[in-house]
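Form 12-C: Joint structure prediction
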Amino acid sequence: MTLRLLAIAFRNLLRAKRRNALAGGSMALGTAALVIASGLADGITRQLSDNLVAVQTGHLQVVVRPDDFQPQNNPFDAYGQDPLPDAEALARRIEEEGRAQGVVRAVPYLFVRGNAVAGSRSSVAWIVAIDPAREAELRAAHPAVAGTFLPEDDDMAVYVAEVAARKLRVGVGDAVSFVVQTPQGAVNSLDAVVCGTFRKGAPWYDNAFYVTLAAGQRLVDWPGGATNVKVLLTRGSPRAIARGRRAVEAAVAAASPRPLPKATRVRVESYTEAGRFSWAIIQANEAALVMLSGFLFAAAGVGVVNAMLMSVRERTREIGTMRALGMRRARVVTLFVLEGMALGIVSALVGALVGGSVVLSLAATGIPMKVASLAWMAGGDVLYPALEPASLLRAAGSIVLLSTLAAVYPAFSASRLEPREALHHV
Amino acid sequence: MSRRLAVLLLALLPAPASAQAPDAATILRRADRAVLGETAAYTLRMTVVRPGKPERVVEMKGWKKGDDQGLVRYTAPARERGTAYLRSGESTWLFLPAAEKVVRVGAKQNFGGGDFSNSDIFRLSLIKDYVPTLAGEETVEGQACYKLELKAKDRSIAYDRVVYWVRTDGSFYPVKADYYTLSGKNLKSLVLSKVKRLGGRPRPSLLTMESRVDEGSRTLLEFLTIEDDVKLDDRLFSPGSLERGE
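Section 2 - Result
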């Protein structure tokens, strides 16, 4: 019976083509706008998350934090500042004991701030010492634009962000010296040769220099040392991360890394906790999306209520006839609510089609983020929007729900009409 | 004639044992106090030279008490006036008047954007941190000098090795210092020159720190006035005094 009513509801949409086209058009536009906004937000989320997971934190990371650790809300929060004792053994243990819980790889790396100098030019340097053989994700995230990625056994090589290379005026084969302060307090230096440069786009990688773990450990006078252990899981869903976290925490507790610097402790952090800065951007985008949705819904909702009220008014005699023939009030309500739903379904389909096409087309070309602040927000100098099925369904479903709910009041208005009065209506 | 020849021959003979050099620790201890005394108040001008950039000149007023308490305030140019560095014990603070904020800075961070580090400025005593060895005598910067090899007492000391040249003429004025990193790289060189009378005694007044890594970068510190043995209250060297501008 309801299906029959739904079929009637769809057919009724064609009775007032112009009015329904206007109301439906506004909802279709709203849907398209929501799909596009979701695509942008999802693209930013994906870029920021991928940066974090592949380059800095993995899905989970082990790091030493001061007891009174206060994040500075910058992208470097994720990096540890204190030595994590016996990090290589800890990483091996996490891999072995966490395999059943989805741990794919646990990789130690070392981060140190310093200065890079080439000739008469110098730059702040974020020196990250890695094991190139075990950093496939980082390699994919930082593809070389000149030369090659960091070779596995070359402790004299450095892989440099293109921006930093430009600042220092160095290219592949040129020498760069690093000067850092070791954790113990001494000043140390490392002479390296540029093996390649990469372009990431995200401004916080502009001063990144990658050297081998052995070279980095020598630079900070810290054999076997690391600041972070990056743990990659088979999947990045919240449930998978919670499961992996339990395994990593158990491995850390069993290894009990010692000695730790005074007033510090070893922590296991998910990438959302470690990348607070990126996560704050993602949350701000989501908040903006919620606000945008609110305004669009309000505008579209008013349109639907208006269209349906007009429909009730125009069809007063028809409602009177239906009621006189024995149609119950509840069915009148159902019919009009279903008409609202039908209008919503058609609008949502059209809007999703238009919005989805725009997102896919932008995802193919990318949107240049020419202003530095936009590049910071988007996690790169090109933003590639993402068409996530869940976001598409959410946008379309919201419009259908809105349209249905907006029809409730006009439907009740229609059901309250008395057949006698309605039949007298001109 | 034969007497003249005898005198000439005597002159050519090596110096007698009585002219033996003092031990390395004594030389270093004397050199440590050659520029500033135990307690001092001074004014100085810092000139930072960077290739392709205009020179940056800053004037400052400073106070020093012992080896681990020091305060330096910028007095010129006007836009930087009030900026201050404080060293107390093992900690160094920077006060930026524009931000009205005191921040802790690393002892090895550069001082005022130049080639001196904070510890180069505030920890002028080398005898506390290094074990000296006398490595001979050499002429450096036109001066006959003792050559000292200084090895850091532990791995927390900024420079693992310092080669230090100190005048042999009894003044014990330091002439030059080469600073090396743990990996053995010569990071920078300090030349002390322009001996002049300041605060009642002659002393090197110009310290030129030249980077050996950053080509063409150097920083000149010229003492304009020095007053030794002044009475200084410990409260002057507290972070609170930075904001109060005492």
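Section 3 - Comments
Chain A has two domains: 2-51+279-424, 83-259. The mean pLDDT of chain A is 88.
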